[in-house]
Amino acid sequence: MHRIYENILNGICEINQISSYESLKKYLKDLQPYALSLWQSYRRENVKVNYSDLNIQAAYLIRYYPLYAAMTLQVFKDLSQRTLLLSNNTLQVCLFGAGPAPEAVGLINYLKNEFPHLIFAEFKAYDLAADAWGYSRYITKNYLLKEYFAGYFTLNGFSTDMRQINAFKSIKYDIQSSMIFVIQNCLNEIDKEPNIFLENIGFLVNEMPEGSILAIADQSNYNSTNILLNRVESYVRDIGQGDIIRSYTEGGISFHSLKMLPEIPPVIRECLLTGQNGLIPRSSVKFNYLAFQKRTFISYQPYTEQLFMFPRTTITEFRALPYPPPLREYDSYFTIPEPDSDPDDIPF
Fold this sequence. Notes:
CATH class: Alpha Beta
Number of helices: 13
Order of helices and strands: HHHHHEHEHEHEHEHEEHHEEEH
Number of domains: 1
Number of strands: 10
Radius of gyration: 22 Å
Oligomer: single chain
């Protein structure tokens, strides 16, 4: 993620009409109390932050955003060893709890190297404070994604509260049209309503397209997130519509910031992340994640006796699902017609 800090600073300077180096230094020094407040909030189990404050957002962009983008990049590097992530030249992605969408930057940095045939990417960022995060998403779109991706892309934010009943019902079409789903670094903000969150995950899993991937990642230093990851994995496994391709029980993953990110510019170290009083640049990140891939069901070719499946998927059983919507006939059992059957009678 070449020049990520410089690109963020350029966006901040444009929006705040900062036109000189001295003005930038003063601006960064004035951000110190906001960066400290953010750091103190993130040290608590139950995180509460006023993201509508643009100074808080600026401190977030400089202090945490690059690390979170690198975290997503690391997730998909690991996932690429386990399954096929992309087979088309276009991609739709849903990002939940994404705020300014650093996940989009991490993912596009992975895809541009591993899938150079990608020509279009559509990112939809869902967040409780989506409207407030417009300031930072502007920087993501115009100073980061444009820098890293030569193809066409869109990034739009939508207000969604994953703690509310039927939170995903209104975005059913978006879910059915997407192939990658990411929930990252927000579990400790929703752990007070875990049952509702699990029900929303169930809806998501039911509506995801076949072959699509859901990755849920969070930092390992919150006990509440580890408990919730455990519950989510058990719940998704019991639904029985796909495979856990990466279990959280495999343990945490660590990366050093200097291996994943460029060096922090001197102006940031001198004026904001000075190394004192809670303003110490983070040197490493430890996180854990689970990943689920929706099963690709068997398709039948009526004039041959062959069954075709996508690579790396296995079908072990078909059973009634414990979560609505109501079961369709072919979700619970399959009837494979004989080769001389009328193709119009095939129940797929």
